[in-house]
UniProtKB/TrEMBL annotation:
<feature type="transmembrane region" description="Helical">
    <location>
        <begin position="268"/>
        <end position="287"/>
    </location>
</feature>
<keyword id="KW-0812">Transmembrane</keyword>
<keyword id="KW-0472">Membrane</keyword>
<feature type="transmembrane region" description="Helical">
    <location>
        <begin position="134"/>
        <end position="158"/>
    </location>
</feature>
<feature type="transmembrane region" description="Helical">
    <location>
        <begin position="227"/>
        <end position="256"/>
    </location>
</feature>
<feature type="transmembrane region" description="Helical">
    <location>
        <begin position="93"/>
        <end position="114"/>
    </location>
</feature>
<dbReference type="Pfam" id="PF02517">
    <property type="entry name" value="Rce1-like"/>
</dbReference>
<feature type="transmembrane region" description="Helical">
    <location>
        <begin position="17"/>
        <end position="35"/>
    </location>
</feature>
<feature type="transmembrane region" description="Helical">
    <location>
        <begin position="56"/>
        <end position="81"/>
    </location>
</feature>
<keyword id="KW-1133">Transmembrane helix</keyword>
<dbReference type="GO" id="GO:0080120">
    <property type="term" value="P:CAAX-box protein maturation"/>
</dbReference>
<protein>
    <recommendedName>
        <fullName>CAAX prenyl protease 2/Lysostaphin resistance protein A-like domain-containing protein</fullName>
    </recommendedName>
</protein>
<dbReference type="InterPro" id="IPR003675">
    <property type="entry name" value="Rce1/LyrA-like_dom"/>
</dbReference>
<dbReference type="GO" id="GO:0004175">
    <property type="term" value="F:endopeptidase activity"/>
</dbReference>
<feature type="transmembrane region" description="Helical">
    <location>
        <begin position="191"/>
        <end position="215"/>
    </location>
</feature>
<feature type="domain" description="CAAX prenyl protease 2/Lysostaphin resistance protein A-like">
    <location>
        <begin position="192"/>
        <end position="278"/>
    </location>
</feature>
Length: 288
């Protein structure tokens, strides 16, 4: 989810100060990160993460099973919400929550099933090395800050370009993700809390598992680091189905892959993703 660069008539002064502080700290962190890896040989020598050496057919079947599980769970949910006696206002309020929950449960359950029934496919470990929570959180905060200026700047120019193109007559939707609209319009406090939990707890875990833990590692083994980063980040951005958020999420996906490479542990991109979504939720309600 992304809320950067949304064209608002007026942003409160305190929020402007907050954003400029994030950008200032982010530029400092980005400079440090750049100096650490400006030498291409240094980046190439960073090998904290193994690729996923399974055949294309096995990878395709795993992805198919994940999508099929999500489809079945969401279909069952859709049928249940259409049953007689279900109040329409209840369906409208909770539809986004249940849909998101079905997707996350579908991914986790199918992944757990494959790991249990086909352990030979997971000989290449997702986590190259153990990393305690506190160091992982410190790395995550640093890389989130380093990513923030680039994401914010990209979002600002991209969304304003889309706005100009829309004014020129192009049929372009500037609507944010469904969950953003649902959070803004949800009439129920429990529904809002449920959406927030899905965004900052569930989504980071399942999305990082799929896009970094599975897709990126598989592509890295086949293509090398740089193509794998760009392709997995592009798929990650595309799957969110929002044109205004595409390039900001693409940049986020790149930083998530870099953090995974640097740390060798999936905890770090999960925590960065959680911080990013938490910050987006904060901005959503600050601009509501």
């Amino acid at each position: 989810m992304t809320e950067f660069g949304i064209i608002e008539s007026k942003i409160p002064t305190w929020l402007q100060v907050y954003l400029w502080l994030l950008i200032g700290c982010g530029v400092f962190c980005l400079v440090i990160l750049y100096h650490k890896f400006r030498n291409s040989t240094h980046w190439k020598s960073t090998n904290n993460l193994s690729g996923w050496s399974i055949p294309w057919t096995d990878f395709g079947l795993i992805i198919w099973l994940i999508f099929f599980s999500v489809f079945i769970l969401q279909l069952i949910l859709s049928l249940l919400l259409r049953m007689p006696g279900i109040d329409e206002s209840f369906t409208q309020t909770w539809h986004t929550v249940f849909t998101g929950l079905a997707m996350q449960l579908g991914i986790i359950s199918s992944y757990a099933y494959i790991r249990k029934t086909q352990p030979e496919l997971f000989l290449d470990k997702i986590n190259f090395k153990p990393l305690p929570l506190f160091p992982a959180a410190a790395i995550a905060c640093f890389i989130f800050l380093a990513s923030f200026p680039t994401i914010a700047l990209t979002s600002y120019f991209w969304q304003n370009l889309l706005f100009v193109l829309q004014e020129l007559g192009l049929d372009i939707s500037l609507n944010p993700q469904d969950i953003v609209l649902s959070m803004k319009n949800a009439p129920s406090f429990p529904a809002i809390i449920s959406m927030i939990l899905l965004a900052i707890v569930g989504a980071p875990i399942v999305e990082e598992l799929v896009f970094r833990g599975l897709l990126y590692r598989f592509l890295k083994f086949r293509m090398g680091k740089t193509p794998a980063i760009l392709i997995s980040a592009g798929v990650f951005a595309s799957i969110h189905s929002t044109l205004p958020g595409f390039f900001p999420l693409l940049i986020l996906g790149v930083f998530l892959c870099i953090s995974y490479e640097i740390s060798g542990n999936l905890k770090v991109p999960i925590l960065i993703h959680a911080i990013f979504n938490l910050n987006s939720v904060f901005l959503i309600f600050s601009l509501k």
